[in-house]
Amino acid sequence: MSHLGNTHSSLNVTSLRDLARKELTKVLDSVRGKKCLVLDPNISGPLSLIAEFSLLKEHGVEKMHYLQSGPLETELKSLIYICRPQLHYMKYIAEHIGHHQKDNLSSSEYEYNLFFVPRRTMICERVLEEAGVFGEITIGEYHLDLIPFEDDLLSLELDNTFKELYLDGDYTSIYYAARALMKLQTKFGLFPRVIGKGDCAKHLADMLLRMRKEVAVDDPSSTLSVSQNIDSLIILDRSVDLITPLCTQLTYEGLIDEVFGIRTSHVEVDSTIVGPTSQKPVSATTTTPNTASTTTQPSPPARKKKIALNSSDKLFVQLRDMNFAVVGGVLNRIARRINEDYEERHQAKTVVQIREFINKLGGLQSEHQSLRTHTGIAEEIMAYTVTPEFNKALEVQQNLAAGIDINLQNDHIEEMINRQVPILQVLRLLCLLSLVNGGLKQKSFEFFKKEILQTYGFEHLQTLLNLERLNMFIKQGSASNKFNYVRKHLQLIVDEVDEQNPQDISYVYSGYAPLSVRLIQCVTKGGPTPIGYPVGANAAANSIAGGGARGIVGWKGHEDALKMLPGKTFDEVQRHDDGAIRSKKLIQGQQPRVTLIFFLGGCTYTEISAIRFMAQQDEGQREYVIATTQIINGNSLLNSVMQKIDHLGHSAGGNS
Amino acid sequence: ITILESYEQKDLNERINKLKIALKWYQDDKEHAFEAKAIDENIRLLQTQAQFEKEMNQQLVGLPLNETVHKCITTNHPNKASKLKSDFKIPDKRFWWIKLKALVEMRDWDELDRL
């Protein structure tokens, strides 16, 4: 995991990984002797980013299994379960124990240890109690929360937060998020300013402030001092900007996610992709999030190849945030350069020159390899992006986002339903249509609902109800079109986009600037850069008025637009009891400011790209570190709220 | 929730009964007129499918309406398809799409020509 080593960020994110590692070894060492590790399939991916297999082995792990239903066969007597506190896992565990008890009457031979990630919950313990196995198990917690993916990207890897927060009203993930942020505060100091938008974000901020007070009460000596390099925390609620994830991502990394699906910064592609075959790429993205990732298995299954996507791949670093339109050209250029480098060997005459070349060869070859991989992937994506369906959908999206010919788009969507394109595609567009218009007209609303039910099956009635509850697909209210105003005010649509040489974050969607990132721009700079207020003047004014956070403008000047978006807006200043003045002094230092951005309910790869682009524009004045509950795209977003009854056709049909 | 339960029911009659309960729920609530209508339609669909199944010797129950129409055409029951069209008020546009697809699948170029 050397990619985390080069900390060009002033926030030392690697230390978070070390912390998680240390705790993992502690967990493993708490059980003596050889042991068998039973993992929640959803955790194995993130865990592999924390520790490699050899580390587990060093600490006595002999075997690893996924936590599944059915008996668990193992000759090892010590078992360690690591899983999320989810009820069905408890049932599996009880099942395992039950089996062991049946097999050899004295179950005391086995030793069960269960570690919840990140916290134990009462309800899980209750399930174990009811199954009569609670007494057999030693229960602990493994506080794995924010997992560093890159220097500037942390994720909680909680898969279903969006659905839990906004559909089920289950706020557990807010609690987890608050604990994780608290941990950051203990490590890096107090965030001087907490700014955010959205009801759930507000909850998170409140919880964070409360936790800090609790810490202060518990142990007055350990008051946190104001952070020296983090100047603010911006919390954004996914419900504030649902439009962005619904659009098709057009950056390289974003498209990889749309086409293949990225899980814990790994992508699984056909191993034949180096010599590409035409495979239906759409099916790859629609697989349910629960399909076990095979990260920890030493040998991947024959056909699928796992590719790590992170900054240890130099080529990928160059490509990931680019608009896909330029990727082809860049690949071509690099291929030519590598070729030239290879050619150098002919010019090498002296022994020294030859040795020099040999030294370079290793790097050259790995570069070559990664070039081959990415060319393969890019070709596959290309094949997908030239299909008429893709382009039609994209055209509709862009017209909707820009507010052009709304009525015409209705017909396009209707045609897509008639062609029976995958329901996710259709729902993405319909939700977008509803979001940008503040709902659909009664007549077309019911028309589309009927079309969907009749085309894709009546079970989607529940899906539609869910979307309605989320305000993603609704009937038009009396209110005027809010998004129009927001779009104009925040310049979400930029007509002239130079994908080769982007000037504005809108390049990630070829014209549409992600609303969420625009909001962040408002906070840090006072508006979109091209016409924004003179940054310097604003910053100066603010360093006097604000709580010492230089350059953070806050929501000022954008209150009207914010009112049009759902959820509460807040802006809190956190002060050390006597530290307000002192912290200001510290801030005069040379170090760039770090702004931490927390996406509650997930963020997309394009948003990450856009934020990275912003950081580049700032020329080292400000760095952004992104933290999120999970990484999403439009498909995974909708998938989580969709009603799934997959066995429907068979089981019902076979019965009469 | 009863809708979900209904899908777990393997037996067709049980399923229809559950749906009827759900239907009652929604009918009591004015805001959910659409849902009530949809469920009612679903019940009718299931009943029609069961009836057709007997006549055509094809598995139909549980399929979406479109697929049902599709099946009717591919198995040479155009009358049944038209009946579904009028019963469930399928818009012309969509009906022709289904028909087109089905006929192409059957390579029934003569029939296609006649369209």
Automatic annotation (TrEMBL), chain A:
Residues 274-304 are annotated as: Disordered. Pfam families: Sec1. SUPFAM superfamilies: Sec1/munc18-like (SM) proteins. GO terms for biological process: vesicle-mediated transport. Residues 283-297 have a biased composition (Low complexity). Belongs to the STXBP/unc-18/SEC1 family. This is Vacuolar protein sorting 33A.
